[in-house]
């Protein structure tokens, strides 16, 4: 199942019916009942209506995903409007700023399995919605140690994404891969897919060694840049190594550090000697990894209380403010629990 989000810019009502139909059909394809698909229609209608009415437009991203054999639809709704002064207040039925019944946000919350909102006055709003086959299904948590979310969006006009990510777990820890194939389109996508398969096969513990194995595997492809960040529970440490321009940053409270990759391209030319950076693995850390589809001059400390938010809200907030729009884009955010 593709990890990529479909993205639509919504500036007026002309696209709303099309998007509703697409997500409705997706729900039916996933095995949702006609009743649940209709509830999904209500969620999408409220989101798009609010975008147009209160923000003058925005962006809707959606995808289907699978968690432990269960099909789900994930939606991000993003705008650069005036923002919401009191998020908790607007979630209550009966509260309205436009002389309506005030049931919109409340209905989204009731009908979705997970609904999160983040906003600052004058900044805009990001919303995250998860829809399962039944409204009363509980959310399946990520494996212990890492709560994460990721956004991957194609270069405009492309059918596939040249970026990719993968996380694999073991009894000893977990490893995160984020890669960006050169350029965009099918050839970049193929390079990343080959790299992910090599990453999945690798039994190496050191991130630099994993990248060397990936380098050998992708030599017949276009090539890519990538970073691997591995955690070992026993030593309580991160092991990080990258080649090319994947941005990797770890936050803990107000402190943060960026981990610079080596110059080079996997599959074409990499340094003869590469060493992984080893840093402590601590509770409450936040790791952010993204491709060059996002600008790098950002700071989570500039956004009020953002570190308290879920990984999906953090990822979509970074996407909102830093998306270049000139390439594929991927941002992965993990919170250490």
Describe this structure in words.
- The protein has 337 residues and is α+β, with helices and mostly antiparallel strands.
- Helices cover 26% and strands 32% of the residues.
- It contains seven helices and 15 strands.
- The protein has helices at residues 16-29, 34-55, 87-90, 104-111, 186-201, 207-217, 311-322; strands spanning 6-10, 58-67, 70-79, 114-120, 124-132, 146-153, 163-170, 173-181, 224-232, 237-243, 247-252, 255-258, 277-280, 286-290, 329-336.
- The strands form three sheets. A five-stranded antiparallel β-sheet has the order 1-2-3-5-4, with helices on both faces. A five-stranded antiparallel β-sheet has the order 6-15-14-11-12, covered by helices on one side.
- Helix 1 packs antiparallel against helix 2 (34-55).
- The two termini are 27 Å apart.
- Mean pLDDT is 93; it is low at 98-103.
Question: How would you describe this structure in keywords?
Answer:
globular; 32% strand; alpha+beta; 7 helices; five-stranded antiparallel beta sheet; 337 residues
What is the fold's blueprint, element by element?
Blueprint: E1 6-10, H1 16-29, H2 34-55, E2 58-67, E3 70-79, H3 87-90, H4 104-111, E4 114-120, E5 124-132, E6 146-153, E7 163-170, E8 173-181, H5 186-201, H6 207-217, E9 224-232, E10 237-243, E11 247-252, E12 255-258, E13 277-280, E14 286-290, H7 311-322, E15 329-336
Antiparallel strand pairs: 1-2, 2-3, 3-5, 4-5, 6-15, 7-8, 8-9, 9-10, 10-13, 11-12, 11-14, 14-15
Helix pairs in contact: 1-2, 2-4, 5-6
